[in-house]
Amino acid sequence: MDLGELINIISRLVLGGLASFLAILLWPRIRDVAWILVIIGTIMAYVGTVYSILEHFGMDTGGILVIGSVSYMPILLSCLPIAFFISALGVMVARKYRRS
Known about the structure:
Elements: H1 3-26, H2 33-56, E1 66-67, E2 70-71, H3 73-99
Antiparallel strand pairs: 1-2
Helix pairs in contact: 1-2, 2-3
């Protein structure tokens, strides 16, 4: 592992950890559905980052969500944050057009 790859891994872990920490601190204070979906999406993005780094180091979980020879866990963890962000934006758009 070269220095650039190490800096990439450390920066993803530190920045993702900071975003997740702030999201967890914000969670009890927020009662808005859209913001809760953004918080869950942020946490799921960090889970995906940690999983991809563990997979990079060879600590793959192996048989979780495998159909044939394709592991669906990386696909699921990369799509879930986006799905939560889409849901949050959809809630905000629906709220905006309902008020008009």
